[in-house]
Amino acid sequence: MSKLSRAEVLAELSSRANVDPIEAERVLQSLADLAEEESAKGFLIPNLGELSIQPGPEFEYRNPATGTTMMVPGPPSLAFTPDSGFEKNAIEKRDSDQKLETPDKSARVLPTLNLTPSSADMTSAGLDSTIKSRNKLGGQPDWIQGEPNRMACCGSDMTFYGQFDSSVGGEFNVADSGMI
Q: What is the mean pLDDT of residues 117-125?
């Protein structure tokens, strides 16, 4: 949805307030004039928010003639702080208008890449080189108990990235010969 033009805003305001479009424009202009005059003190627009003028950040200024430096105030800026009820309702309205899709909670299955160390590497590491290694990246895990090949946490399926077989012995052997 594109934003409303000035004419569309006036027509919509006129229709909702049941007033003449010229009267709606006059009220909006009066509101803008009042906001300009009062924003230095803070100007509350009921049910919408507050306009205020905020001081700019200080910055260092160097006098080109003398070379001395001093801190000077930065230019002020106009700030708008939305009313909490207005902000909440506007966000909820946007979300319902956009009918935000819920993210897909099913996990991706990555292609499998088996990682098999050479028998010389296994022997030099003090491991039995005759045991088939189940080291791999991607694919499906080999150790899941319960529902086959389903890992879940916090209501979402998890993507499996890889496993290292600890049942071949060595320094990282898990007591139940599982996967790490």
A: 71
